[in-house]
Amino acid sequence: MTEEMILANATLVLPDEIVTGSVRIVGEAIVDVATGAFVPTGAVDCGGDYVSPGLVELHTDNLERHIQPRPGVDWPHASAIIAHDAELASTGITTVFDAMRIGSIPSGAGRYMKYARGLSRELWQLREQDALKISHFLHLRAEVCSETLIDELDEFGPEDRVGLVSLMDHTPGQRQFRDITKLEDYMKGKYGLVEDAFLQHVAQLKALRDRYGEKHETETVKAARRFGAVLASHDDTTEDQVRVSANHGIRLAEFPTTVEAARACHDHGIKVMMGAPNVIRGGSHSGNVAARELAELEHLDIMSSDYVPAALLLSAIRLGELWGDMARGMRTVTQTPAQAAGLDDRGELRAGARADLIRFRMRADAPALRAVWSRGQRVA
After folding, report:
1. Do 253 and 132 fall within a single domain?
2. How far apart are CA 253 and CA 265, in angstroms?
3. Which of 48, 136, 190, 379 is deepest in the core (most CB within 10 A)?
4. Are both 168 and 272 inside the same structural domain?
């Protein structure tokens, strides 16, 4: 017999409103959403707790943090993947696009090696063994300022669940690193580069961009189409850069660094995604535009947990408070990212949607999760 569950007397987070009601789940799907505080026999009385769609995370570096918890430490990958998956489930994330960089620099100062192909295979092996709690897709972060990008793109195909490909360009002097001192602080702090090594690294990156940049962009756009993936921009700073993104067919912008770029994105119909820590901390750690400023200007659509999974739900609450509209704040982590990623089976409380849900209540101005369900199964 197919398992049935009713969550009743709940504060339902619908796309456009917050109402008291109930959600009926049969198996892996939502079959009914009703209003009213009535609690049928056998139903779970939520006592007014919020019930929302599960959170959809399009960009997180969390898996990399588990794989390398300290510089130079390569943690056993199966253990790291399982821990990453469980952590996301515990924060209400039921769909994740795991960010993996492709495009490496195997030589020179500040070098880094490829890892995405092997790690993604290990991720899918665990998925096939039903060892994961939530839904995983790949987010390939294509670094055009690199040596090996085309070869690494060729290692993936439509069978690899690549849902998102973002065009990254970390050439010193532009985008995220238009202020080279920010790159200097990062490289010296993380890799311990001395001044001469850092200057060599900057020269190497600029040379790589001059040699491969345009070709890498072209091949990344082609690869995204081959995968059937959504193509995103990364760290657009100027109107000209946004115009190029729009010409590529991009409809999702990750972390535009200026108001100018965010405004241009909206003018071109490109959804803007910002990092949840940016909202919560009140600004960017790298000195870029504050997400709250974009929210106040109506130029913010989607939130990403970035490097703090628990920040995703909290950021949606904070935006709801800022806008005076809880439903709108929650859309930035449910319906809108699902639609941006081309997933029409989740992100909403409606009949026919996947039974990905979270239940939470507010405690001391912070959301406290009570339960998380993925495809109708409780996972946290």
Report:
1. yes
2. 7
3. 136
4. yes
pTM of the predicted structure, to 2 decimals: 0.92
Cβ pair 232, 224 in contact under 8 A: no
Element (H, E) at 362: strand 357-363
Angle subtended by helix axes 195-227 and 180-191, to nearest 10: 100
Written as one letter, the residue type at 367 is P
Range of the domain at 20: 1-53+346-380
> What residues of the chain score a pLDDT lower than 70?
1, 108-112, 170-173, 175-193, 201, 285-287
Question: Helices in the chain by DSSP H: which ranges?
Answer: 62-67, 77-90, 116-128, 149-153, 180-191, 195-227, 239-247, 259-267, 276-281, 291-296, 311-323, 326-331, 335-340
Place of tokens 């989607």: 302
In tens, the pLDDT along 209-241 reads 778 878 999 999 999 999 999 999 998 999 999
- Residues 333 and 363 occupy one common structural domain: no
Token couple for 293: 């400023």
